[in-house]
Amino acid sequence: MIPVTGIFETHLLVSDLKRSVAFYRDVLGLPVAHEVPERKVVFVWIGGHGNAMLGLWETSAPLGMQYHFAFSVRREDVEAAVDALTAAGIAPLGFHGEPTDKPVILDWMPAIAVYFRDPDGHHLEFISMLPKEE
After folding, report:
1. Which of 45, 116, 117, 121 is the least crowded, having the fewest Cβ atoms under 10 Å away?
2. What is the pTM of this model?
3. Distances (CA, A) of 8 to 33, 49, 53, 131, 134
4. 49 with 77, same domain?
5. Are the beta carbons of 48 and 82 closer than 8 angstroms?
6. Dist CA 85 CA 114 (whole Å)
7. Nearest CA to 68 among 131, 109, 129, 127?
8. Is 16 within the bounds of a domain?
9. How many CA atoms lie within 13 A of 120 on its CB side?
10. How far does CA 127 lie from the centroid of its chain?
11. Residue 134: band (very low, low, confident or very high) from pLDDT cuts 50, 70, 90
12. Distance between CA 111 and CA 128 in Å, rounded?
């Protein structure tokens, strides 16, 4: 077996590439890695150049499914995320999609997290593992 150590790249279908790039680049701070205008795709770096990548693919087909993925961030950034998301006009959400004014604790991991949606309704998360003793 080849030991898997992480996910390097994932992709999302989006309905408006320009709007999605503005969200991921300007709101989440993910720098553009590469653009292929003729294929209507933009790749953004996650965690800096060469760490991980997200591909945003524009489609004219109706988006019938929203995807979920989590961004690994520092604990203090999860704790600050509710205010930062609210200031950016994004609704912070709890585990079940309800509005929240504080991060949630996932006891079984344990981890601290806050959820939110991108312009196409994809379910995103900022998460940080906690020490087991907490």
Report:
1. 121
2. 0.87
3. 13, 11, 6, 25, 29
4. no
5. no
6. 10
7. 127
8. yes
9. 26
10. 10
11. low
12. 6
